[in-house]
Specification:
Elements (H helix, E strand, L loop, with lengths): L1 H6 L10 E2 L2 E5 L2 H12 L4 E3 L6 E5 L3 H11 L8 E3 L3 H7 L5 H10 L4 E6 L14 E5 L4 H10 L3 E2 L14 H8 L5 E4 L10 E4 L6 E4 L5 H8 L3 E2 L26 E4 L4 H11 L3 E4 L11 E4 L4 H17 L5 E4 L8 H11 L1 E2 L1 H7 L1
Parallel strand pairs: 2-9, 5-7, 6-10, 11-12, 13-16, 13-17, 14-15, 14-16
Antiparallel strand pairs: 1-2, 3-4, 4-8, 5-8, 6-7, 10-11
Helix pairs in contact: 2-6
The structure holds threonylcarbamoyladenylate and magnesium ion.
Threonylcarbamoyladenylate binds next to strand 6, strand 7 and strand 11.
């Protein structure tokens, strides 16, 4: 039912329109006031950030944060990021504000960096799903900053999608995921970055990247020296330090597989046998004939990141037999985050071949 409504929406949701009790408002004064009003009343509302859209509620109130988990169908063990309007507000959310936190916030806030620190007493433990730590981020989207500063307190906000599925990069995507489950979406246009923030744990001795993002490993090392990275290809059964690290996450509903250029001849044969399928590639030499759909991605990492989730969503909406995603050759800089999200959204193509053996 919600899906049918969204189809007509076409990424261009109109201001004030109500769909299944979920209202979309433009990111102006009235919209900001409406979101802040809901947050003050202990409710939830979705809002734009430069990475992906978030579903926010007051991080100090357990009953407000519980509504986020309910709307998303999020497992209670998966902690949520707390958003703040400035570093001063962040200090109130952490038990200790360290020299490293100061350095990183100076270098990358407002922006797509989330830092994990010891949790302060004002934050409800539900935000951290029982952990002693809290994830803090100051986003740079102007509407997000305006909301957070007008609210004047910490806002817990995971990505505004049903748990385990693709993060939303537009108000229409949020509607497709959460229509009828949340009262309001603030429409701030398409997300500038398109992938979730970099998550770095600075609660221990050595800064550790738990999730790669637009603040790259190279950028972090240039700012603070030694930085460790957690392998993002953990299997679902592994115990992950950060639950979003489970290898199947951010996934479309259609079976999705990734492949390297070297595997293409085999992939093409399989695709021709199982057509129509959707192909996401960024290499001119790779193409499938109709009835399969070839979706050309950019070879530029910034543009690729911006459009990846929207492309996955579009491919998913076609209800084809499979989605096939070409892996980038380059794994450095922002490509590391793209490779990580492709891995979480897909299984390796060899899995199909092994199953058929
Ligand atoms: O870009 C973003 O970070 C977006 C926007 C809305 O800001 N938010 C987002 O939130 O992606 P979410 O909840 O979908 O992802 C949060 C990630 C998860 O992998 C979660 O496990 C991890 O951060 N996380 C949160 N608190 C943590 C903690 N205390 N310790 C370890 N990991 C934590
Ligand atoms: Mg998420």
């Amino acid at each position: 039912m919600a899906a049918a409504v969204v189809e007509g929406c076409d990424g261009d949701a109109r201001d004030g329109r109500e769909v299944s009790d979920t209202r979309i408002m433009a990111a102006g004064a009235a919209g900001v006031a409406a979101v802040v009003g809901l947050w003050r009343a202990g409710g939830v509302a979705a809002f734009p950030t430069e990475t992906v859209y978030g579903l926010g509620a007051d991080a100090r109130r357990e009953e407000a944060v519980r509504k986020i988990y309910e709307a998303k169908g999020r497992p209670p063990g998966n902690p949520v990021i707390v958003h703040v309007g400035d570093p001063g507000e962040a200090k109130l959310c952490a038990e200790r504000w360290t020299a490293l936190a100061e350095k990183l916030s100076d270098a990358f806030w407002p922006g797509p960096l989330t830092m994990i620190l010891a949790r302060g007493a004002s934050i409800t433990p539900l935000v951290s799903a029982g952990r002693e730590t809290v994830a803090l981020r100051c986003p740079r989207h102007p509407a997000a900053l305006e909301l957070l500063r007008a609210f004047g307190g910490p806002i817990a906000a995971p990505s505004a999608n049903r748990s385990g599925f693709t993060s939303p990069t537009s108000a229409a995507h949020v509607l497709a995921e959460l229509a009828g489950r949340i009262p309001l979406i603030l429409d701030g246009g398409s997300s500038e970055i398109g992938l979730e923030s970099t998550v770095v744990d600075i609660s221990g001795d050595l800064p550790t990247v738990l999730r790669p993002g637009a603040v790259t490993l190279e950028m972090l090392r240039a700012a603070v020296g030694e930085v460790r990275v957690v392998d993002s290809t953990l299997q679902v059964t592994d115990v992950a330090e950060s639950p979003g690290q489970h290898s199947r996450h951010y996934a479309p509903r259609t079976p999705a597989y990734r492949f390297t250029v070297a595997e293409w001849p085999q992939v093409k044969m399989w695709a021709d046998l199982h057509a129509p399928v959707a192909l996401l590639c960024h290499d001119d030499s790779i193409h499938l004939a109709a009835p399969s759909e070839t979706m050309c991605m950019s070879a530029d990492a910034g543009r690729y990141a911006q459009t990846f989730y929207a492309a996955l969503r579009e491919a998913d909406g076609k209800n084809l037999a499979a989605i096939l995603v070409q892996m980038p050759k380059d794994h450095g800089g922002l490509w590391a985050a793209i490779v990580d999200r492709i891995r979480r959204a897909t299984e390796p193509f060899v899995v199909i071949m092994e199953a058929q053996r």
